[in-house]
């Protein structure tokens, strides 16, 4: 009889404190006198960028007639906020499971605070099981780092990935089509410029038609995995100093209330910058859609957007090498830049295709002219 009693007590305490590790994705299943299991899907660490949300869940399966409440919490409520929702399910008599889903995001900043002053830092999120009889609530937790996620970058969408002709390629920019320095006032270069195509950095060039407007499609990646298309505003800078391109929309056409920033203005405002392509960033970007001021609103609007009016327009053929920079300070904590090339063609081909039509048109016009002259002459005599 004593042996049976000892076995019963042993099994009871074994079930009371049982702990079984399932996997890294589904955390430990823990049981006690009040609940059968407690599981979650939380990772050890998360990175949270601007305008993003982390979603996690935790589930408790209590023993019959036991409490199933879950308590979420954040160590820094000035950095993060949460929105929790619960679903209960009656699985047997007296057993009601609870599944809590929590969405975690940044606390919205004060209206008087600039987006470049958005708070970064670390905080801990936890979910605990409510137990009145326990001095310390059993809980699971994860660390959330608010800032730029490691490995996050942008790239340009390319329809062609294989182009061996550009692996050892040089091209020439005609004189008068580029500038040798970027400080105003500048003069067009007087000699041609030969450039070695940097295939390692640029990959295959995008294809542009001389007669079409052009806008690259930027894509957001993290550790090589595609996340989404970039919807934020960005600017482009031609790294070889080419001046034979422009933008199709003016500041007035896009609805600016004052003069918008331009790359040249940004370069002129920042003296002694070793790489002028860094002159325009999210930190110094200013919108032209507030604070009405007088100015020349018929200048080209240089800020591009996935759905915006402005786009590039070409004034020559050849290879253009651009650096794209996301300048929207609301988009990300990361400094998002990429380089790409565009090979513009079509002007000479369209010209060659036009010649036969001109010849045919001239011939037809000449034929009708001769017929008309003969007709008039015959009627006269």
TrEMBL record:
InterPro entries: CATSPERD/E, CATSPERD/E_C
Cell compartment(s), UniProt: Cell projection, Cilium, Flagellum membrane
Membrane topology: Single-pass type I membrane protein
GO cellular component, one term: sperm principal piece
Keywords from the UniProt entry: Cell membrane, Cell projection, Cilium, Disulfide bond, Flagellum, Glycoprotein, Membrane, Signal, Transmembrane, Transmembrane helix
Domain CATSPERD/E C-terminal: 168-351
Family label: Belongs to the CATSPERD family.
UniProt name for this protein: Cation channel sperm-associated subunit epsilon-like
Organism of this sequence: Paramuricea clavata
């Amino acid at each position: 009889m004593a042996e049976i009693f000892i076995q019963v007590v042993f099994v009871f305490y074994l079930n009371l404190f049982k702990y079984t590790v399932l996997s890294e994705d589904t955390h430990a299943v823990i049981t006690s006198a009040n609940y059968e299991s407690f599981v979650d899907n939380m990772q050890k660490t998360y990175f949270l960028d601007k305008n993003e949300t982390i979603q996690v869940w935790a589930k408790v399966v209590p023993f019959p007639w036991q409490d199933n409440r879950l308590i979420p919490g954040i160590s820094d409520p000035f950095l993060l906020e949460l929105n929790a929702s619960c679903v209960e399910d009656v699985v047997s008599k007296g057993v009601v499971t609870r599944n809590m889903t929590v969405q975690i995001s940044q606390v919205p900043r004060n209206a008087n605070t600039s987006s470049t002053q958005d708070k970064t830092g670390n905080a801990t999120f936890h979910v605990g099981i409510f137990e009145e009889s326990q001095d310390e609530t059993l809980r699971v937790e994860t660390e959330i780092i608010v800032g730029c996620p490691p490995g996050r970058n942008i790239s340009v969408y390319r329809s062609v990935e294989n182009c061996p002709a550009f692996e050892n390629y040089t091209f020439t920019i005609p004189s008068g089509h580029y500038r040798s320095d970027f400080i105003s006032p500048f003069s067009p270069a007087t000699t041609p410029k030969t450039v070695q195509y940097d295939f390692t950095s640029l990959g295959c060039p995008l294809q542009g038609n001389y007669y079409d407007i052009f806008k690259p499609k930027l894509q957001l990646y993290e550790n090589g995995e595609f996340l989404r298309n970039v919807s934020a505003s960005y600017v482009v800078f031609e790294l070889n100093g080419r001046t034979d391109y422009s933008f199709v929309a003016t500041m007035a056409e896009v609805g600016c209330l004052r003069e918008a920033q331009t790359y040249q203005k940004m370069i002129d405002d920042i003296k002694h910058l070793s790489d002028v392509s860094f002159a325009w960033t999210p930190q110094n970007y200013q919108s032209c859609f507030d604070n009405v001021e007088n100015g020349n609103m018929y200048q080209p609007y240089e800020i591009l957007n996935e759905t915006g009016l402005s786009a590039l327009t070409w004034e020559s053929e050849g290879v253009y090498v651009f650096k794209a920079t996301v300048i929207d300070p609301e988009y990300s904590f990361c400094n998002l830049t990429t380089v790409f090339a565009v090979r513009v063609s079509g002007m000479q081909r369209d010209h060659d295709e036009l010649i036969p039509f001109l010849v045919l048109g001239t011939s037809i016009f000449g034929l009708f002219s001769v017929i008309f002259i003969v007709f008039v002459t015959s009627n006269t005599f």
